Amino acid sequence: MKKLSILFIFAILASCGQSPKDLAGLQASLKEKETALKGLQIEIDSIQAQIERLDTTHVVEASLTPVEVRTMANQTFRHFVRLSATVSSKENVLLSAEGNGRVVSVNAEEGDRVSKGQTILRLESDFIEGQLKEAEAAYQLAKTTFERRENLWKDSIGSEIEYLNAKTNFQAAENRVKQARAQYEHTFVKAPVNGSLDVIRVNKGEFVGAGTPVARVVDLSNLELETDISESYLKAVKVGDSVEVSIPALGLKQAEKVIFASQYINPENRSFTIKVGLKNNNALIKPNLLAEIKLKDYENPNALVLPSMAIRKDLKGDYVYLIDKSEAKPVARKRYVKIGRSFGEDAEIIEGLKAGEQVIVVGANSVNEGQEVEIQ
């Protein structure tokens, strides 16, 4: 703009025969005129705005608030309770040595599948094995002696005391064999259930004492979830109910069933215990993993349901905006309602609405009673 003004000034100077010496004065004059022009434009804009406000013949149509609505209809509403639980195994067994001795062999490796009764490791048994053989030999002698004394006694040969002594010695020898065999069996650590050998805590050559934990066997095919739930749900939970189980660490969700519901109420926290069976088809689920149980405690097959975000609240209570189509254009009308249960993003309406009515579900925050709206 200034370049054009300067060129214009030079043109004037050239036409008037004036020299560039008067350039500064002309520039100052131009600046005064421009300032005056800005002032006039401000006055013009102000006057135009006043005219628009006062001119009733000029009508500007206000834009309507856009909203989305839902036509109320009966549908099924379900309420769920979420419970935290921990995975456990019915057959998660920590094995301990039943006798004292040095480990002479480890017959399985961690991770191996073992069967009930399979030997996992052995302790030294030479001394105990010798005692067992002596006891068995003494048992055979006592047995033979008793049988002969018994036959003689039946034929009325010999005294009763000799017969009774032989019988007593035989029974004592039999008991010593049982004790020696039990001690010998204690030198074997065997799997008490079918499962996986999770860990072995000792090595060959180490000395262990009676009661020392040596290995763990876990059956991952027989898992369950156990948790406590408030006594208020006692009538809502029963054996056989379907639940949804989630294991966040594995990203798993699967349907399961309640396999146990205790009838005993814990007086300390007013709760009772439930157990849920847990399938482990891919063997990914491990004991002590955290899980969540989603259990249905309420269902209404003929409910009126709204998104919770569509429900407003004031000092009088909860309300929604309905669409009134009796006017030329749709109008928002305020209606107070009573809410039943809520779960997730939905709420059950138990009073105040009926099927067929249209409720504003999007845009309710931007409307007022009696305001015209535009249904999207």
Widest sheet, order of strands: 2-11-14-13-12-15
The whole-angstrom Rg is 47 Å
CATH superfamily of the largest domain: RNA polymerase II/Efflux pump adaptor protein, barrel-sandwich hybrid domain
**Class by helix and strand content?**
alpha+beta
Strand fraction band?
35-45%
The CATH class of the largest domain is identified as Mainly Beta
Largest sheet composition: 6 strands, antiparallel, barrel
Number of strands: 22
Distance between the termini: 49 Å
State the CATH topology of the largest domain.
Answer: OB fold (Dihydrolipoamide Acetyltransferase, E2P)
Question: How many DSSP H or I helices?
Answer: 4
Domain module count? 4
Mean pLDDT: 87
Low-pLDDT sequence parts: 1-10
Along the chain, the helix and strand elements come as HHEEEEEEHHEEEEEEEEEEEEEEEE
Task: Write the CATH architecture name of the largest domain.
Answer: Beta Barrel
The helical percent reads: 25-40%
Word description of this protein:
With 376 residues, the chain is α+β, with helices and mostly antiparallel strands. It folds into four domains: 2-54; 65-77 and 301-375, conserved putative lor/sdh protein from methanococcus maripaludis s2 fold, CATH 2.40.420.20; 81-90 and 219-299, Beta Barrel (Elongation Factor Tu (Ef-tu), domain 3), CATH 2.40.30; 97-216, RNA polymerase II/Efflux pump adaptor protein, barrel-sandwich hybrid domain (OB fold (Dihydrolipoamide Acetyltransferase, E2P), Beta Barrel). It contains four helices and 22 strands. The strands form five sheets. The chain has a six-stranded antiparallel β-barrel. The protein has a four-stranded antiparallel beta sheet with strand order 3-10-8-5, with no helix packed on it. Helix 1 (2-16) crosses helix 2 (23-54). The longest helix is centred in the first third of the chain and has 32 residues, at 23-54. GO terms for molecular function: efflux transmembrane transporter activity.
